[in-house]
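Quick log. Single chain, no ligands specified.
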Amino acid sequence: MVAKMEERAITAMKKAIIIGGGLAGLVTAIKLATMDFKVSLFEKESKVGGSCRAIQLGGGYRFDLEPAPMMMPWVFERIFREAGSAVDPSLRFIPLPVNSRHFFYNKSIVDLTADGEAMADQLTGFSPENRTGFLDYLYAAQTIYEWVEDTLLASPTVSWTDLLRPGAVKSTWKMKLLQPLDAFHRRFFDDARMLAMMNRYATYVGSSPYKAPAVVAMFAYLELVQGVSYIEGGNERLIEALVRLAQSRGVELHTGCAVDEILWSDRKVTGVDAGGEKWEADIVVSCIDPIQTRVSLLKDEQYTPDMRQLSCSQVVGLLGCKETYPVLHYHNYFYPREMERYYIDLFEQREWPDAPLIYVGNPCLYEADRTSSGCNLCVTAQVPASFGLKPGQFELYRERLLYLLERVWGLQGLSEQIEVEQWLGPLDLQEMTGAYGGALNGRAFHGFRAAIRQPLKDRKRQGLYYAGAGTYPGGDQAMAAISGLHTAHLIKQEEEKKESKLTPNG
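-> predicted structure:
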């Protein structure tokens, strides 16, 4: 009995510090707090949210910084359930009837949806081979997702060697999961539009379909079979709900307080230096980019990141417009004529593509109250992660994107309709999210190295852990949340192992 009481006391005394208040940080903090850790979260910005933050511009225009399709909403229901709480009533996931609308140079438009009949209608303009290939592809994508669910999503991956379990290796080889995504797709399609739409899933992890492995096709299953949603009121509703849950579980939130250094001694973390003070901790979890953690917080002067191995960054334009554009759906993609050239520019030449794949988010389609009039458009184009720009490069790229949307894609008068705008580039995204060079997904998800992500547990320093896009290949909000859950579970497992050694007969 005494031993049991000592076990609980040891756990209760443990202090955990979370660095970064994005989704992964908030979820990690909530989960550890429910496991009886004393948790403090530090966020250098005045508000938490990371890439899920909301931005409001003059005239009542409200934007999501990253309006990505919402997949796997059940993950967030799980977070509340495991915290012993009902789902926040303000948090509503609304299924989209059309997942995304796709515009091509030949003036054809394709709507992707999880509605089988509607999707069959969309495919009537394709060859019989591609229509049959689409059904076969969905089955293959489902098989891939089930493998990912069993192998990667079910339990924490402490090291890449965890993927060398006999069953996992056999399945990976049998399904050819490490073959390039483009090669995988060419088994089912030969239509350039189908290839472009399916290869686009590589951009969800900031990578090239010619180098990213076929396992990325799991996102096709999630979108085209399970469907996607949006959060009523925007991503900020999710952040607000998680903040309320965190505070109800005793998490201390320190906003506007940057962590300057992770403190450690004798190969064990001792706390952090933040806001000019030293904060002691038994556990530190960095939920910002692992590369940025190593460079800025661990002060590893011997480490020089290879920019060529990073995922891409983005140029983001937030546009408050006086008029709406009925041709747009909620999520919209505009494809250049030469997709191969686009990926070469991004990942081989490391240049800002002259003819990029452009995404336009149009949330006012379903939520008119997010703008006082007209529409609030989020325009993004992927560019290489970087730390410097040529003189005038940013301004010229803004003009280029607006020109393409107006003159090529038919959003007539867009420039004249803009009332307010804000443009962000790689350095802005680094400052706002902690992503090294603005690479929102950390290292590019390419080849065999795709499996060798940053482990959740630091190899050199006891008590240091990681969560976020650097540990999982990005994708959407749910994947970031899953990484937080896994890191918290791993910490709990390791602490219980230590405590069992301290108890009699343990």
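Confidence is low (pLDDT under 50) at residues 1-11, 159-164.
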